Amino acid sequence: MRRRRLASVLALAVALLVSADGAHAQRATERYIPLGQSPGASGTLTSIGTIVAVDREAHRISLEGPTGRVTVALQDSTSIWIDRHERGLGAATGSFADCYEGRMAEVKYADPDTRQVAEWVKLRAEGGGSRTENHSTF
C-alpha cells in the first residue's frame, strides 16, 4: 500500500514537472527552429515580415508583412537569434544592433492578445550585413 502511494505521488510530481516545464522547453529549443517554421507558433503567435523601422531610443521595431504593419518593444528579456539555417549553420545569438531596416524577421509576442512586447525575435542571416552574427554560434 505504501509503495503504491509513493509511486502515485512520484508519478504526479513527474507529470506536473513535465507540464510546467513545457513552455520553458519550447523557448529553449526555439533558437534551433528556422524562421517561420515554429510548430504551433509561426503565423499564429508570431508575425513575420521585413523590418521597416527601428526606434533605438524606445527599443522598438516595426515589421511590414502579409497581415500589415506591427510595432513591438524589445526588452532585456527578449531573446534575439540570427537564423543561419540557409547557410547550413546553426543559429547565432544576436542583439538589438542586428535589427535594422530591410532585414527579414519573425517576432513572437510575449502576450499574443496585446502584441506589444516581443518574447523572442529571429532575424534572417544576411551575408556581411550583420553586426554580431559571426560571433556567437550554436
Q: What is the fold's blueprint, element by element?
A:
Layout: H1 2-20, H2 22-30, E1 46-55, E2 60-65, E3 68-83, E4 92-93, E5 104-109, E6 117-124
Parallel strand pairs: 3-6
Antiparallel strand pairs: 1-2, 1-5, 2-3, 3-4, 5-6
Give the helix level as a range of percent.
Answer: 10-25%
Query: What is the CATH architecture term of the domain at 31-124?
Result: Beta Barrel
Main sheet, how many strands, which sense, barrel? 5 strands, mixed, barrel
Name the CATH homologous superfamily of the domain at 31-124: Copper binding periplasmic protein CusF
Residue runs with pLDDT of under 50 for 5 or more positions: 6-25, 128-138
Mean pLDDT: 79
Sheet/helix structural class: alpha+beta
**What name does the CATH topology of the domain at 31-124 carry?**
OB fold (Dihydrolipoamide Acetyltransferase, E2P)
Rg from Cα: 18 Å
Structure, explained:
This protein is α+β, with helices and mostly antiparallel strands. It is built from two helices and six strands. The protein has a five-stranded mixed beta barrel. A hairpin with an 8-residue loop joins strand 3 and strand 4 (92-93). The longest helix is centred in the first third of the chain and has 19 residues, at 2-20. The N and C termini lie far apart (49 Å). The model is unreliable at 6-25 and 128-138 (pLDDT under 50).
